[in-house]
Amino acid sequence: MKKYWLFIAVLGLFTSVFVSCAKKQEKKEIVIAVIPKVDNAIFDQVKESAMQAAKELGITLTWEAPTSIDGKKQKELIENLIHYKVDGILISCNDAEMLKEPINKALKAGIKVATFDSDAPKSDRIFYIGTDNRKAGEVCAQTMLKLFEKNKKTPGDIILLSGSMSADNMLERISGFRSNNKNNIEILNAFEMPDYGEELLIFSINKHPKANGIQLMWGVPVLNGVDSIPAVAKMLKKGGIGVFFDVSKPLLKYIKNHPNCATMKQNFHAMGHDGVINLYNAITGKDYKIRILNDVKVIDQSNAEAELKNL
């Protein structure tokens, strides 16, 4: 009888330890890392909305911004995150081709990897969330042609500024633009550096005095306002047409007062918030979407005031 009760006691202790361990496993904290292209104003809303989603889900989110747009920096970050065994990575890729291998390596290590803003379509990433970039490029071209018509101007040479020539989102936007605008186009590559982008715009405007259209597929240089780049402001004042990307108060104030300008508004909130939730669903074995595309919204003089109130 004594042995029987001893057996029961040991069994109870074992069961207690087993249940305790099971509970600990159930309560394992989920960690998701978000890697933007670089830490700049463009990604502030992504960061804010991603943090909001993490709070709602009760998980840990870490913001891992590279110090430059060199794809090697993002590759190093992914390798570090593999070492730390995070559960998920959501990344905006600076170099789609270079990041294919490290993304696949992370997936093989059991980490769910998804892309936002700028995709790596040849990798095995589990989903992409962001702007339909080719369609956005088409909308830019169509918007520019409408502005030329509205302002009774004849389209001439176009100056187009890209953030990077290795990022999938830039390549897709440029492709979409060129498919809908057959004018001579000079494409400038700013390497995601605002000051350098400004210098390129100034140089190109001086180099092409007959150019009367300017398209920014990467909008950072004018987020402080078009007047912050006098050469661009002068070109537009002379009747040129300007189509930009992304929004800020200074830019919207300028567009509100000028009928020859427009910009494209992306849904950065969805990229951060919905991207994290979709990735969480994948990590926890729930249903998730493999492709979430959002259209850009055209902001011109007709609706710039209303958009200003939303900022």
Distinctive features:
311 residues, alpha/beta, Rossmann fold, 6-stranded parallel sheet, 6-stranded mixed sheet, 11 helices, 47% helix, disordered N terminus
Characterize the structure shown.
The relative contact order is 0.14. Helix 2 runs parallel beside helix 10 and helix 7 packs across helix 8. This protein has 2 domains: 29-130 and 268-293, Response regulator (Rossmann fold, 3-Layer(aba) Sandwich), CATH 3.40.50.2300; 133-266 and 299-310, Response regulator (Rossmann fold, 3-Layer(aba) Sandwich). The strands form 2 sheets. Strands 2-1-3-4-5-11 form a 6-stranded parallel β-sheet, with helices on both faces. A 6-stranded mixed β-sheet has the order 7-6-8-9-10-12, sandwiched between helices. It starts with a helix and ends with a helix. It has 11 helices and 12 strands. Helix 9 links the parallel strand 9 (241-245) and strand 10. Mean pLDDT is 91; it is low at 1-25. The protein is of the alpha/beta class. The longest helix is centred in the first third of the chain and has 25 residues, at 2-26.
